[in-house]
Hints:
The protein is mostly helical. It is 51% helix and 4% strand. It has helices at residues 2-9, 14-18, 33-49, 51-59, 68-74, 84-104, 109-130, 155-173, 193-209, 216-232, 255-262, 271-279, 285-288, 314-317, 328-341, 345-364, 370-376, 386-396, 402-410, 434-439, and strands spanning 63-65, 133-134, 152-153, 242-244, 267-269, 323-326. The chain has a two-stranded antiparallel ribbon with strand order 1-5. α6 runs antiparallel to α7, α15 (328-341) packs antiparallel against α18 and α16 packs parallel to α18. The radius of gyration is 24 Å and the shape is globular. Mean pLDDT is 94; it is low at 1-24.
Amino acid sequence: SAASDVYKRQGYSCSNYVDGYEISPNNPQQSSPALLTTVIEVATFSHYTGQFARFASIMSQHGAGVQAQYEDLGKYDIFEGDNTNEWASHYSAINDCNTLIALAGDQNPHYRGVARVLKAMNLAITTDLWGDIPNRAANQGLAGEEGFNPAYDAQEVVYQDIQTLLSEALTDFAAPDNVLEPELDDLIFNGDIDNWIITAHILKARYENRLSKKDGPGSATRALTNIDNAIAAGLTSAASDCNAIFPGDGNSLNQWYAFEANRAGYYKMAEGFVEFLKTITDPRLPFYVGPDASGGFSGTPLGSLLTTTSYVGDYFASPSSPAPLVTYVEAKFIEAEAAFRAGQLARAAAAHNEAIQAHILQVTGAPADAAYITAQASETEGSISLAKIMTHKYVALFTQFEVYNDWRRTGIPALSPNPSGSVPAIPRRLPTPQTERLYNSSMTSPISDITLPVWWDQ
């Protein structure tokens, strides 16, 4: 046009306005280790503190689903199409981990180690929910049609691969020379590799401990070895906790807070859990549990749809509350359980007592009073029991997915299924995703029975 000719003659062609700006900074064309690390961590936060944290809470009866989709969840109406988005999100994160592992390479082993830890965590929550899953053949679609239908690996094999990933990560973290180092892009530790080393050791202990039904003595011994390694690496307190971090604004809100803000009344505290905290006069009660409609603390009874009860308290559900992923307190409870199973009763009692007292101090900001310590955290070699360890771990790991895994392994605490449930037992897994049944020809035996235990739960 005449107008455009004028602009061109004066040096104002359209290209002058857009050169250098046609590529959005929010949609980069190439990934970097820093970018991928942030993306993977944010996805991992969602996987461990979002939908499946609430699912685990309802199954383990910390909470109750009382409205809309969560009423269905509370009644165990769980179907193959319900979590296809979550399945896809897990594999997207795992694929990003693979990309970061390759991109970091030998020049950036610390980034590679972080990627391996995060991949292990995402593989673990996926297999813990679905059992056998694609792993070794997964995320290879770019190689062509042979990658479109990835084979499933037995859960036992997936757990072996998880341990391998964590061992490789520890080797990476020991490497002194790195061209690039994680910094603020690492939302969890800001590049503190010492804390990543501790986290990897605790995770190795967690996943060994997971095998208590399959190899009781061996899993206990290996878990204790990894706890000892974490202690040797500097584990002494909650200062090295691996947490999901939420700045508290925009789309960066704590997931428990954001859920209540958008779907108030869908989820409530469970009566049994709240009443247990009252029974033992637990000082964490007002931190765990928000006020109900009457200004007190209450939970919804099992099988009820009462909505005037409490929601999660501000300690875990404020806009910027960090969400625990892998912690000192969990490590001490793993130590207590594994030591108990290994016959090291004095060590089990000491770790149990320390876990309780450390967590109360962390949550409330003050030490537990003498009466509480005497009643709940003064176990000895002669008085410690698995029931005491797992019951207090159940209390301390409130909001965490790991509670559901522990309940499946140990049956502690004793829980009754929802009397209004669509199945007669508390679900022990998720059904095979609909997308896998329909589109992955390697999935030849889809599972619909949500009461069927996964391998490590058998």
